[in-house]
Amino acid sequence: MMAFFWQGALLLSITAAISVHADMKLDCRPDYVSLVWTESRSQADTSLFRLGNCFPTSFSAREAVFSVYFNDCNFRTMVSGDQLVYTNDLIYVSSPNSLIRPFIHPVVCAYERPKDWFPRIYDPVFNTYGQGDLVFHLGLMNGDFSGPAESTSFPLGSFIPIMASVEQNTHQPLLLFLEECVATTTPELQPESYIYPIITNKGCLVDSKMSRSKFEARQKSSEIHLSLQAFRFAVGEEVFIHCKLVAWDPTGLDKTKKACHYVKEHGWELLDNPAYSNLCDCCDSSCKSRKIRSIASGKHGIVQTAVLGPLAITDGKS
Q1: How far is Cα 314 from Cα 312, in angstroms, rounded to an integer?
Q2: Residue 79 has what pLDDT?
Q3: Do 204 and 260 form a contact (C-beta atoms < 8 A)?
Q4: In the beta sheet, which residues pair with residue 177?
Q5: How much of the chain, in percent, has pLDDT values that exceed 90?
Q6: Which residues neighbour 279 within 8 Å (Cβ) at sequence distance 6 or greater?
Q7: Quick one: pLDDT band at residue 131, thresholds 50, 70, 90?
Q8: Distance CA 97, CA 43 (A)
């Protein structure tokens, strides 16, 4: 069937001459796409380009290269008559202080639709929360984040791998953050609940100041990986981790939409681009946005609360 796709590829599989500042070459193959963005502006940071929720396969001072399969990067699939069309967005994620404004450029590959083609079915693995056309997941993972955890019991001092993700099959690409996470002994947060703060102040991993907890490097913009060092809290009891997930427009970042962890002998560091770690300076005070518009409006992002557990933290001495 893939060979049939290749024969039916339209002329838009090779595209160039996008603007006076850049050149995009798009090569639509049978089951994957190769995209090369060449940027003429020296101020541009090519590592900040995203294809959907995928980071560049490689990049240099002037080029960002993506070689990805259509099953990855949240490509959207659409059937139009006898055509099967894959669409996505090339995004430039910029800092508020950057000279180059964030922008989005459409990416389209179209093929003749095979008669036996049918939509694939998604089978979620993690705790799932639906909101509109977005589906959020929060789950415990194994040590290298390659699959679900085999146990929900963690010795004191070991790492608790946590992954949050958002599925966005019919939505523009979004950047996912953990805005707040606390541990409690109850599946529901109550005013009298005894809590252990993990992430506070709009994305600051405060637990990392007193432990080895950290955010892991992103593999996809729609996922965030947290290595949480098991802490001395309710040892031997059931523990629940309550989090607030935020799926945000990657072009609308500020001090309230970030992922920061504390690096010993260095200070607060921004996960997605350490060069702009000044966005984390407020982690020891109060992080507030200059913008008045609320996320609740839905214009820039969507908030979802989620709970993980029960899990157990055990004392290795007992």
Answers
A1: 6
A2: 65
A3: yes
A4: 246
A5: 36
A6: 95, 253, 254, 255, 258, 260, 270
A7: low
A8: 12
Could you give the C-alpha distances from 134 to 55, 73, 91, 167, 248, in angstroms and in order?
Answer: 21, 15, 19, 6, 12
* Region class of 213: left (phi > 0), else alpha (psi between -120 and 50), else beta: beta
Tokens of 204: 């600051």
Q: Is 37 in contact with 59 (CB distance < 8 Å)?
A: no
Q: Which residues of 199-231 are buried (b: 16+ CB within 10 A; e: fewer)?
A: bbbbbbbbbbeebebbbbebebbbbbbbbbbbb
Is the pLDDT higher at 190 or at 97?
A: 190
Peptide bond preceding 119 in cis form (omega within 30 of 0): no
Res 117: pLDDT: 54
Using one digit for the tens of pLDDT, what is the confidence trace for 5-42?
333 333 333 333 345 567 899 999 888 899 999 988 88
Closest CA to 173 of 257, 109, 247: 247
Residues across the chain: 318
Determine contact, residues 139/252, Cβ cutoff 8 Å.
no
Q: Let me know: does 303 contact 295? Beta carbons within 8 Å.
A: yes
- Exposed e or buried b per residue across 300-315, where buried means at least 16 C-beta atoms within 10 angstroms of its C-beta: bbbbbebbbbebbbee
Residues 6+ apart with CB under 8 A from 43: 98, 99, 100
Give the contacts of 183 (CB within 8 A, at least 6 positions apart): 195, 196, 198, 231, 233, 234, 239, 240, 241, 242
pLDDT at 125: 32
